Amino acid sequence: QLQPSGGGPVQAGGSLRLTCAASGRIYSSHVMAWFRQTPGKEREFVAALRWGVAIPYYADSVKGRVTISRSTEKNTLYLQMNSLKFEDTAVYYCALDRRGQLSRSDNVYDNWGQGTLVTVSS
């Protein structure tokens, strides 16, 4: 089970850190990711990493402004977001792919958190 937190209101240019606590065992081959979604739009890939090596992958829209990381000790995934823009406003989801496919497509992820809302005011 994945439990995200850390969302909330923030002004443009500000920062926010999202957290996703995993209750089950995360193996080194697993992939964890962040996606986001706004009303009327499809879920959009934000960032991902393979749990073991933790090499990050980012969407072009957020590259340079966000950092995905993880703590194996705490079994937790993070998303540090800086220089936030109005268009970053969305519900953010953390997701787990136990098959380790490292994909930007949401349909390969088999476990999802409930989402946390980030609202950026301009």
The helical percent reads: under 10%
Number of helices: 0
Order of helix and strand elements from N to C terminus: EEEEEEEEEEE
What best-fitting shape do the alpha-carbon axes yield?
globular
Biggest sheet features: 7 strands, mixed
Estimated radius of gyration: 13 Å
Backbone structural class: mainly beta
Stretches where pLDDT is under 50 for at least 5 consecutive residues are none
Number of strands: 11
CA-to-CA gap between the ends?
34 Å
Q: Strand-residue fraction?
A: over 45%
- For this entry, what is the oligomeric state of its chains? single chain
Whole-number mean pLDDT:
96
How would the blueprint of this fold be written?
Layout: E1 2-5, E2 8-11, E3 16-22, E4 31-37, E5 44-50, E6 56-58, E7 66-71, E8 76-81, E9 90-97, E10 111-112, E11 116-121
How does this structure look, described?
- 0% of the residues lie in helices and 49% in strands.
- By secondary structure, it is mostly beta strands.
- The strands form two sheets. Strands 2, 4, 5, 6, 9, 10 and 11 form a seven-stranded mixed sheet that branches. It has a four-stranded antiparallel sheet with strand order 1-3-8-7, with no helix packed on it.
- Strand 4 (31-37) and strand 5 form a beta hairpin.
- The radius of gyration is 13 Å and the shape is globular.
Tell me briefly what this model is.
This protein is an all-beta fold.
Task: Label this structure with key terms.
globular; 122 residues; four-stranded antiparallel sheet; seven-stranded mixed sheet
